[in-house]
Design a protein that fits this description.
With 379 residues, the protein is of the alpha/beta class. It has 14 helices and twelve strands. Helix content is 36%, strand content 15%.
Amino acid sequence: MKFNTKTIHGGQKHDPAYGAVMPPIYQTSTYAQTTPGGHKGFEYSRTHNPTRNALENSFASIENGKYGLAFGSGLAAIDAVLKLLKPGDEVISTNDLYGGTYRLFTKIYENFGIKFHFVGMENTSNIESFVNKNTKLLWAETPTNPMLNIVDIDALSKIAKDNNILFAVDNTFATPYIQAPLDFGADIVMHSATKYLGGHSDVIMGALVVNEKDLADKLYFIQNASGAIPGPQDSFLVLRGIKTLHIRMQRHCENAKMIAEFLNDHPKVEKVFWPGLTSHKNHNIAKAQMNDYGGMISFTTKGNDYNKTINILEKLKIFTLAESLGGVESLSGHPASMTHASIPKEEREKSGVVDSLIRLSVGIEDIDDLIADLKQAIG
């Protein structure tokens, strides 16, 4: 089954009760038993729910995995992975990391004796010097948030396997339409399903997908024991969103390409970060592991002037100034004061998150309207 078909049919079955084509919303917390322990596979909805199960099967299918897990948020999914670790373990991650992930790592799990190293993963030679006997997890984003750096998944998987390290990839920006980390050797794929998988800015959810049964069983145990699961209504919404993922992503990518080229030629723009540009430092890696280059773009304006940058964001009309990304509507953001504000300024700027950086989540509106909006805002 090819990807475009998987988004609609992957892992799905018609409802056995009445043949419903769309999985019904099983809005129930518990299930009748004929005798103690005698049930139809469902006893309590924290553990299993038919609507959530349908979604988890879809997650696994579109990521070319065997086991999918749904969580109440992307951070809840990351939290579940970190619960595989113990005090004294070490994690190597990118220095260009989503602020919420950085906050979870440093403000929560460092307190439990886990040590984190943040390095420039776009150059794999930076990683090997941090590997030691205590290293238990490589955590990568690719493309990264917000600098759109590209990490070589295949190269990292070799480092992980050579050193018996678990390797996880946050695939939120790329989506399975563009990139399949499990196929390149990752052990775990994570998504903030709030973003492109849901696709309509109306739900909060996280996802994990794995291939190994032993790892899946550990994560299912954590999911059930910790209880950070989504409800059936949210599961239904994300499952519905996945059914149009392929056609939405095609337009996201088409629009982003034209906007990246427009910005790249603009006299007031200093630099554009989008892996589809041949000037991108890891464009060749992106070309090798991605089917397209995504709908996320970051750029800086000349002069690194905070006030001018804020003025541009305030003048945008179609690009809504807001947190998040991946919906059908275009969004703009200022990472230094929004998504990455939890990262100390000195650390932010080391990775390129300067005051003049603007991040765009390019939606599926008419491209002429989007470019006209950027023209009038930038001047």
